[in-house]
Amino acid sequence: MKVCSGCGEELQSEDPGKAGYVPAHRMDEPGVLCRRCYRIIHYQEIAPAAVPPERLRGVLARAKQERALVVQVVDILDWTGTRIPDLNDVAGDRQWLVVHKIDLLPRETNYDRVRRWFERQLGREGFRVERVYLASAHKGIGIPGLLADLNRVDGAVYFMGAANTGKSSLLNALMGAAEISSDRPLTTSRVPGTTLNAVTIDRGEGRKWVDTPGITAGYRVVDRLCPTCLRAVVPVQPIRPRVYSLETGQSIWLGGLARLDVLEGDRQPFVCFLSNRVPIHRTNVLRAQPFFEKHAGKDLVPPCERCLAEVTPVARTEWKLEPGEKVDLAVAGLGWVSARGRGARVALFVPEGVETELRPALV
After folding, report:
1. Which of 81, 135, 147 is nearest to 103 (CA)?
2. What's the CA gap between 164 and 82, in Å, rounded?
3. Do residues 197 and 93 share a domain?
4. What CA–CA distance (Å, rounded) separates 331 from 55?
5. Mean pLDDT in runs of 10 for the chain (363 residues)?
6. Paired residues of 21 in beta bridges
7. By CB count within 10 A, which of 89, 170, 261, 300 is most buried?
8. One domain for residues 234 and 305
9. Which CATH number belongs to the domain containing residue 109 in this structure?
10. Full domain range(s) for residue 280
11. Which residues lie across from 100 on neighbouring strands?
12. Would you say the pTM of this structure is higher than 0.70?
């Protein structure tokens, strides 16, 4: 069976509309890419594709059968939407966590503090993780240390995580640092679901690394957006925290994807951590919904008009923020708003089914 060297999909030349298509005359070329991967790499054409659930279950079953080390990769800007507690059932105690894309945090961030935050949070949430790494494939941060530890691991290592956490980019960086030759790098893009099947990198002497399809559960904002909106919501540059001083009766819109209302509380700063390309609009509680109805999909973007029905913020969660507690109000697949401990009662509106949480402040 021949597979695409970029995404792992089985190659076929019968149906151009299905995954894995390659023209018949190119089928026997070394390191051949399917048409989808070729277009992603050469034209930055975003082509979403669904991974069948049974395929993911098969990959997870193989990892468990092989007693593999599982490296769970999460997005530093989306812990809420990219952590996968169920991997405990696959990996047991043989699990490492790589907190990826740390170069997207504000430049003044203290990485030691971030690492300690994750170590505490893993304990709170019941993760059985041996080691925590901070890394950036884009900047090469953390790659040498992670590679040195991986080189001491015998057997199989499965890289797993939610779609679009950068697993393939991380593996490409590790392969480059390890000087592992390959006909083609693994295919990467900003769209969730680029890797369609397991891709094995043979390291010799019974050792291998396995890149796996990203898991998409549908509870993130990014899982419901078109390619154009994705480009705005998925950061590619370090985020710049934006501070808004709000009091009782005031609101902010995060694009048209989420809304925060201050129901009770003295004037205080709320710090927004999300893509620099998502505009933030201040209004008040009474005008917030009419403002959305008038401008959503037009001046209030993202979402565009095409995505609007999928991501209209109608689900409401209310929290009481206690004085002295610095917390984040996180929205899966979008970012978070940080409150600095002065106490308030707030309501957060997000699209139906999108996960939210109140957690200790990350930065």
Report:
1. 135
2. 9
3. yes
4. 28
5. 78 81 82 74 56 70 91 97 85 91 96 98 93 98 98 95 90 92 59 67 92 86 93 96 98 99 98 98 98 94 95 98 97 98 97 97 97
6. 12
7. 170
8. yes
9. 3.40.50.300
10. 227-360
11. 75
12. yes
